[in-house]
Design a protein that fits this description.
By secondary structure, the protein is an alpha/beta fold. The protein is built from ten helices and eleven strands.
Length: about 300
């Protein structure tokens, strides 16, 4: 596939808005797609600088009659920013997800987590495993490659604005060309439309609070953090797991992905060709693997 999937008007027309209040008073947002009476809900959680629209190409490409709820983590998209900037950290995000689950009264969840969202999924599996039927982790693991963190820190958190959507798309193309080497002008524009927003002054800017990078911590987490996260990962051992990795990812190394497979005996690994950090999950190989995984887990148990 050489271009990002386009989102059809029909899918856009079915999007429903979810708003709930966090424990500390922020109004948080999620988009709701598909039948609300679906027995299983697929909860989609994006990466550091993205938002709920990141998963729309995947949802459209799957074309499955299931409920998908895609969140704007606090500080992104339509969710409130934290005025203090002190709560931008995965444990707080997980607390927000617990609030959403309670708000929607959800009992059977399949988690899809990209990068930061994958770390959230691991923490959620430890916090409330009884609600989780399966997890798809997209291009992240218990051990994160410092080189990739350094690269992300180099472009995230800026307050750069652009005079036009074309300028925004071109800038994104320059920074992400190595991640999506087959993208063309149309794909970069769709990328920009998902990750940026037009501001009151007509300028185009990234749709997140620049302060979010403060929650990244050190670009060299150290052995204590890695040890703790491998302990968290062990909580997934009874939960079906699909690991997706970009072939040239600088966040999830091949070595770490293989170690995850050894630690989780029933997990599966998909390596997406010609993708770095992160696959968009609309690639044909991704859609096939995700569709198969979701179909199996959505079957009623006897």
């Amino acid at each position: 596939m050489t271009e990002a999937a386009s989102l059809s008007p029909a899918v856009l027309a079915t999007k429903r808005n979810i708003v709930w209040t966090s424990h500390d008073g922020l109004k948080l947002y999620a988009a709701d797609y598909g039948p609300q009476d679906s027995q299983v809900t697929v909860l989609c959680m994006h990466g550091l600088t993205r938002n709920h629209k990141d998963f729309e190409p995947m949802i459209q490409g799957l074309g499955m009659n299931m409920r998908f709820v895609s969140v704007d983590v606090r500080g992104r998209g339509k969710s409130d920013r934290d005025p203090s900037g002190k709560s931008y950290a995965p444990p707080v995000y997980v607390q927000d997800m617990a609030g959403l689950i309670a708000h929607l009264n959800l009992d059977e969840l399949i988690l899809v987590g990209t990068s930061m969202g994958g770390l959230m999924a691991m923490l959620m599996a430890k916090a409330f495993p009884d609600k989780i039927k399966g997890i798809i982790i997209n291009d992240v693991g218990p051990e994160v490659n410092p080189a990739g963190l350094k690269r992300i820190a180099g472009y995230a958190g800026g307050n750069e604005t652009f005079d036009s959507w074309g300028d925004a798309a071109a800038a994104i193309g320059r920074t992400q060309a190595g991640v999506y080497p087959d993208y063309g002008e149309e794909a970069w524009m769709e990328f920009a439309r998902r990750t940026c927003v037009e501001r009151d002054d007509g300028k185009i800017g990234f749709d997140y609070d620049p302060v979010i990078v403060q929650g990244m911590g050190s670009t060299s987490p150290g052995w204590r953090v890695n040890f703790a996260m491998w302990r968290v990962f062990s909580a997934l051992k009874a939960i079906p797991l699909l690991i997706i990795r970009g072939e040239t990812s600088d966040i999830l190394t091949e070595k770490t992905a293989k170690r995850m497979l050894r630690r989780h005996k029933t997990s599966k690994l998909l390596t997406v060709p010609d993708r770095g950090h992160t696959p968009f999950l609309d690639e044909p190989v991704s859609l096939h693997a995700i569709g198969k995984f979701l179909t199996k887990l959505s079957q009623p148990t006897s």
